[in-house]
Amino acid sequence: MRDREAEALARERETALLNRISGGLVSVSSTRAMAELLVKEIRNAMDVREAIFFLPEANGELAACNREPEAAVTTLACWSYRQNKALGLPPVVHRAEISDGGWPISAPLQTVMPEYARHDLFLPLQTTTRVEGIFYVGARGNNQPFSLHEARLLVSIANLAAVFIERQRLEAAANKAEALREADRLKTTLVSSVSHELKTPLASITATVSSLLAGDVEWDEDAVFTELRAMSRDVDRLQNSINGLLDLSRLEADAWQAQRDWYEFGEMWGGVLNALPAAERARIVFDVPDDLPTIHVDFQQWQHAMRHLIENALAYSPPASPVRVGARSTPREVRIWVEDTGLGIPPSERERIFEKFYRGAAAEKAPSGTGLGLAITAEIVRFHGGRIWVEDAQPHGARFVIALPCTS
Predict the structure, then answer these.
(1) Would you call 294 exposed, middle or buried from its count of C-beta atoms within 10 A (0-12, 13-18, 19+)?
(2) How far is CA 101 from CA 116, 148, 155, 348, in A?
């Protein structure tokens, strides 16, 4: 009766430990965190010297994920992984003993090396499809072999670790597949969105050149100049589309290194306004205090961001209506906004408009575009550690706000 009571208490402690480990594994998200959790629990439950998880790398070789092992331990772990055999488990002679002992798995339980004289354990992390690695448990502090109950508990823990690692691997594979599907979707969107922007000016340029080269038409100097000016606009449109794609790819790859310096607000907007036609410049209304502090930005990148916001506001506002540009400062940040007088942006689209190639419902009433301007602006703002969002303007329209932290 005492033996049965002791066994019942041992099973109760084992169950509590496994429940605690199972609950802990739900809250961890990395293999290293899983290893640290299990090692801590095992050391608290048993007097073991060390516990190490060996996981396969891309080249197929095993590598320890939570600490550096001895060379002999690594060699035995590699053998156990290749053979899918456990080392160091207590010897079991009859299958009935395995069943009566409550082993959670039937193989590989027996030690496969009769001459193996160490008092540590090497347990394969076996799942239904593959071996995910090796769980090594060092010898106990008193250098005594593990009992059947202790070995059974360690095998159960190894099974929990194997399931966790398999889940991580499958989630990574699913995320990779999802990323590939998203890349394919973006490629399709890119072709459909950009092809029009590239083909339209090319077709216009081709038609103009063909007309100028035709020998059956007499062209005077003024007519030639008009056609060439139209070709110049088409070339600019084509170049802007290509530059937008290049800028976005460089920003997303962090290949556009920022060259930051301190600039005044007026310096930033001078180049942007000079690039606009005179009629468009007359529509810009500024609301900026004289004591606005300087901002620490990359001049070229920031002009790109401001130009996209201004062009966007001009395109979506009614002809001849004003576009307002304002700024205010607080001790923590400088806020800059560009406000149009268009139809506004519904709440359901206020996050998506900063996505690549997305053009909202209001885009149907505006000139065509690739949907890259706001995405580029958002990347530049992110690159500078700032925030960007859109809100309603009064009485109607949209206000794009950039919050840039004050950098000392």
Answers:
(1) middle
(2) 23, 7, 13, 60
108 touches 84 (CB < 8 A):
yes
Superfamily of chain region 2-177: GAF domain (3.30.450.40)
d(CA 143, CA 158): 21
pLDDT in tens, 187-214: 665 555 556 556 777 788 888 888 888 7
Q: What is the pLDDT of residues 17-31, one digit of tens each?
A: 788 888 788 778 788
Fold of 260-405: Heat Shock Protein 90 (3.30.565)
Rg (alpha carbons) of the chain, rounded to whole number: 34
Least Cα distance to 149 among 115, 87, 216, 100 occurs for: 100
**Largest Cα span, the chain:** 116
